[in-house]
From TrEMBL:
Family: Belongs to the EamA transporter family.
Keywords: Membrane, Transmembrane, Transmembrane helix
Name this polypeptide is given: DMT family transporter
InterPro entries: EamA_dom, EmrE-like
Species whose genome carries this gene: Candidatus Segetimicrobium genomatis
Domain EamA, chain residue ranges per copy: 8-137, 148-278
GO cellular component: membrane
Lineage of producing organism: Bacteria, Bacillati, Candidatus Sysuimicrobiota, Candidatus Sysuimicrobiia, Candidatus Sysuimicrobiales
Segments passing through the bilayer: 6-27, 34-53, 65-87, 94-113, 119-136, 148-167, 173-193, 205-227, 233-255
Amino acid sequence: MGSPLATVSFGLAAAASWGAGDFTGGIATRKADVYAVGLVSQAAGVVALAALAGARAEPFAPPPALGWGAVAGVFGALGIAALYRALAVGRMGIAAPVTAVLAAALPVCFAALSQGLPSPLQFTGFGLALGGVWLISRPEGAGGSPEGLGLALLAGVGFGGFMIFIGQVQAPAVFWPLAAAKVSSLLSMLVAARAAGRLPRSPRSLLLPAALAGLLDAGGNAFFVLAEQGGRLDVASILASLYPAATVFLARLVLGERVSRTQAVGIAAALIAIPLIAT
């Protein structure tokens, strides 16, 4: 498992799964309350990860691993809540790229301090990938005031914190700590919904897409942990953070949305970055 190929493969699988989950969750939130979709998706993730742990016959994780997972879940819930709010009050062209780039940059800085600096070629790949994520997430012609920028930064800290803390889980533990993260995230969302004065219900027709979003998100989490356990945290984080490319691809394939020139340049940069990061 501990090889550059494993890290690259699992990192890209995490990006594909997270991107598909974001697309599916975005479809669901067009017709249902964000809290409803979030609660259903997190509950589905708990069930899926616990089932995978049982199917894998994974030994129940020790308390430290479960603790890392629980802390990561709180950060993940913070990231989701802050990002959705940033998208509601600000511009997607600002909120999305700021969140994605900061979420990728924080684990890179942490890994540089804890694991040492990567090679110069990998540094070049990191730069190309971060630039690609920014361009992919930023629609053509997007501009406007920085309204919601603070929330976008908070979302980036939440997602980056999730990657850092869940990256502390050591093999062979994978699914039980991730299940703990989902439980923690679910409880955090329940508290947030109650504090907001509403515990919404999701229409039955949207239960399936919301649950599918949760399953895809859980799959992305699992792939990310496997990627990190196979190599370096910064490499796994940068590759997994290419998830906006999968979202854009599905929007083009399913909804017929046009890929802008800016996004095309970002996708090309990301493709060039992958072999450099894999060195």
